[in-house]
Amino acid sequence: MHRGVRTALLSGGLLLLVVAVMLGSATVGPVAIGLPVVAKAALNALGIPAGLSVSIEPARTLWVTLPVPVPDVHYVYPFSFAVPGASEVIVRQVRLPRIALAAVVGFALAGAGAVMQGFFRNPMADPSIIGVSSGAAVGAVATIAFPLAVPVGLQPAAFLGALAAAFGVYLIANDGGRTPVATLLLAGVAVQTLLGAAVSYMLLHAGESMRQAVYWLMGHLHASTWAEVELTFPLAVLAFAVLLAYARDLNVLLLGEVDAQTLGIDVERTKRILLALSSVMTAAAVAVAGIIGFVGLIVPHVMRLLVGPDHRVLLPTSALAGAAFLVATDTLARSGPAEVPVGIVTAALGAPFFLYLLRTREVHAL
Fold it and tell me: Which chain regions cross the lipid bilayer (predicted)?
């Protein structure tokens, strides 16, 4: 079968799976809502962007308050199915934002994980391998523990901390314009350890806010909003679209940097782009959901076993499978008598499964 047709069929099937899992997830909760009602409410919530306006709002930057432009997207809602008022509110305002955010976060983490595993030619790599999650943790915990000392909100602080950590690792590993993969990996491990120590120190001085900080570190999607989806979705999709354009170059890099250079690939430029965009995807996901482990490790690894190592197929299938996986695990996390952070569920499911893979299949460099 032609690669393009195979990619389209696999991606289309996984996209249908994502939609089915999202609709099924929206039926789960303290209030029982049937699938037909959920489907109608979801269609009613489907908005088509119809315009953009910009208003000037005050924002606190450092020690001063400045007016900043804030974009506001206007939507048209083409569906108007009759749905009971209470069910409409529950589905559209409570369940769907959380489910949509879970899908976006899973999409971003699994897509970035597939890139990192190809970049490092190692199936044990994950999106946080260059310190992105640790940097986000420093920014988030600092905001929670010392709100008066940090001039930005929780999510901006986590996002900026994640990007700063990734950029710092890159600068440490860079040697005269070249970035050896082994050096980058070791620098990432060292920076993660250092930032982990910083997080532990801040937790010791967090006082009453320690519980909130620990809850964020566990990874959660509680109280998600449409605003978070609107902020995360464009970043994740745009970064992924560019990464997909570099899928062929990533395939060539698997042959080794010398061979890739011989075949016409600008190796260092390609590595910078792959690192930057995968870091942005991971930072966007971690900033809104905390540290959710194993999604970016397990999902790309399993999809590589199923569809092969060609990143033109592996990247879209991994990202879509990651979306379905995180929606399903978050549904499990909130379906018990007491909700637990989804990061606990992904770790509890992912770690034994990965150990099973290690015992039953040979794991080696790509």
Answer: 98-116, 128-150, 157-173, 185-204, 225-247, 273-299, 340-358
> What pLDDT was estimated at residue 62?
42
- Please indicate, yes or no, whether the overall pTM of this predicted structure exceeds 0.85: yes
Does 68 reside within a domain? no
Other CB atoms within a 10 A radius of the CB of residue 29 amount to: 15
Looking up residue 194, the CATH number of its domain turns out to be 1.10.3470.10
User: Is residue 136 scored above 90 in pLDDT?
Assistant: yes
CA distances (Å), origin 175, targets 150, 152, 181, 186: 33, 33, 11, 14
Q: Which residues contact 276 (CB under 8 A, 6 or more apart)?
A: 166
Does residue 53 belong to any structural domain of this protein?
Answer: no
Is residue 29 included in any domain, yes or no?
Answer: no
Contact (CB, 8 A) for 25 and 324? no
Band (130; pLDDT cuts 50, 70, 90): very high
- Decide: residue 253, CB within 10 A, 0-12 exposed, 13-18 middle, 19+ buried: buried
Domain count, the chain: 1
Helices 295-307 and 342-360 cross at an angle (nearest 10°) of: 40
- What range defines the domain where residue 240 resides? 93-360
Q: What is the pLDDT of residues 19-44, one digit of tens each?
A: 999 999 999 999 989 999 999 999 99
d(CA 145, CA 147): 6
